[in-house]
Amino acid sequence: MQNGTIHSKKISILGIPMDLGAGRRGVDMGVSALRNARLSQALRDLGHVVEDLGDIPVKIAETINVLEDQGLIMLEPILEACSAAYATLRDLPTDTFPICIGGDHSISMGTVAGCAQGQRCGLIWVDAHTDFNTPTSSETGNIHGMPVAHLLGLGDSRLAGIGQGWQMHPEDIVMIGIRSVDNQERDLLLEHKIKVYTMKEVDQLGISRIAQETLERLGHLPRVHVSFDADALEPSIAPGVGTPVPGGLSYREAHLLMELFAESQRITSMDIVEVNPILDLRNQTAQVMVGMAESLLGRRIM
Q: 10-296 — its CATH code?
């Protein structure tokens, strides 16, 4: 495989090894799995300058006495970790491309807000789930199902306040690959007019058109963040996830999506989340997700 013309970027990798937001344990080890899959070296091989910032400290579940706060499981330690991630990312040089590796998807409450650095920011949410629940709509109380709602300022004021006054605009969010939505969550999405491409739209329209429409919607914004949950992929491709849903993005659909975003040169930051090595096969899921990062950062066939 060869690379075309790639504009060298300054990439900072930040780990947030948190599994407190999910009902199933193990995604905290996804940070190590992604590093073991040679994430840094793969990006250096593309010509980028890569710095690994290490990990945000995250409390271990077994050491925490208070497990629930107003229906939210593990709220305080999640709030601490996301706030620390926000502060770290907010203060990076503006020309840095952060890659935030998790960890469960609740980390995005800190990573998206931090990567925005106070500017208006588009969010491309590549996931099987919309993660648009609030504490009152959630059926589980697991915070990894709530980050997008809190980025809009909905739900719990403490989680919604991680960005210290910064909030997303509903029209700046595009979700791709969706195939599992709770009933009340669906009502919230419709109420706030969130743009959602379910797998039905992927099948009908094709991933190329969806990428084009997404860039037309968000490409004018100063910053655009891709938050990629491994369970967006077909489970046979990415078996190491805690909440697999059949019928996901194929290997080529996902790579094409990332390649088209790379060509636009509009993406400014990325999350890779929900890799669970306990459930994986020979680190397959981490390796696949490193490949997605490579495609987003300029890997080409020719």
A: 3.40.800.10
